[in-house]
Specification:
single chain; three-stranded antiparallel beta sheet
Length: 87
């Protein structure tokens, strides 16, 4: 089952990115209303709609290793016994 499966390309708007006047990304927002609000704080800001394309799904088979080849469980450090410092 180690094969590529072609599916339809799905294009959808993922989010909007907000940039300052130098082109540096400030933040990402989910809606056009949020993008317009962020740009209204400073008139030099711009926004761009980010589109995400999804077109391939890769199926990768998995196998279970024998128990002796498994990674050992990690030991979690015990809680500290020290008294917290209050400043």
């Amino acid at each position: 089952m180690n094969q590529l499966q072609k599916v339809e390309k799905i294009e959808y708007t993922g989010h909007y990115s907000i940039f300052d006047k130098e082109g540096k990304k400030i933040c990402d927002v989910a809606t056009i209303d949020d993008a317009l609000m962020m740009c209204s704080f400073d008139n030099t800001r711009t926004y761009r709609q980010v589109k995400i394309l999804m077109d391939q799904i890769v199926n990768i088979p998995s196998t279970r290793l024998e128990d002796d080849k498994q990674l050992k469980a990690q030991n979690i450090l015990p809680d500290r016994q020290a008294i917290p410092v209050v400043v």
